[in-house]
Structure formats: structure tokens, C-alpha cells
Amino acid sequence: MEDASILISGIEYKIKVLAENNKILFDENAKLKQQNSEINALIHLQQDELKLLKEKVAVLEVSKTFGSDTDRQSAKIKINELVREIDECLNLLNK
């Protein structure tokens, strides 16, 4: 009978240790989930900011192209060339 009580005590101790480990792991899991959510939110904010910055860069590049008179003139020439090419393509398609 004494052996059975020793075995039961050992099992109870092991169960207690497992329960404590389970609680520690559960708390750590909850903490990691919270950190994951925060990081995902930060990623979304940074992606939105990156998108806005890319749009600003594009606007700045366009405004820089049309900044000086020589650049503006060369841009107009390029646009006219592209329009002529498009017209030629449309004429070929219509034939």
C-alpha cells in the first residue's frame, strides 16, 4: 500500500509540474499572439506609408520632368511622337 501512495504522490507531482508548464506556455503563447498582431498592424501601416511615398516620388519625378523649359519642351516633343505612333497604329488597325 505504501508503494501505491508513493506512486500516486509522484504522479500528482508530475501533474502539478505539467500544469505549471502548461500555464507558462499558455501565457507565452498569448503574449506571442499579441506581439504578432502588433507587428502585423505595423506592417500594414508601413505598407500604406510606402505606397504614399511611392506616389509622392512619382509626382516629384513628373514635376521634375516639367520643371525647366528645356525639359518641358523635350517632354512635349516626346508626347507628340508617342501620339503620332499611336495614331499610326490605329490607322493600321482600321485598314
Structure write-up:
The chain has 95 residues and is mainly alpha-helical. 95% of the residues lie in helices and 0% in strands. It has one domain. It has helices at residues 2-65, 69-94. The relative contact order is 0.04. The mean pLDDT is 88.
The low-pLDDT segments are: none
Secondary-structure element order, N to C:
HH
Number of helices, where a helix is a run of at least 4 consecutive DSSP H or I residues? 2
Approximate strand percentage: under 5%
Helix content range of the residues, please? over 70%
Distance between the termini: 105 Å
Shape: rod-shaped
Number of strands: 0
Multimeric organization: single chain
Could you say which structural class the secondary elements and strand pairing correspond to? Answer: mainly alpha
Radius of gyration: 35 Å
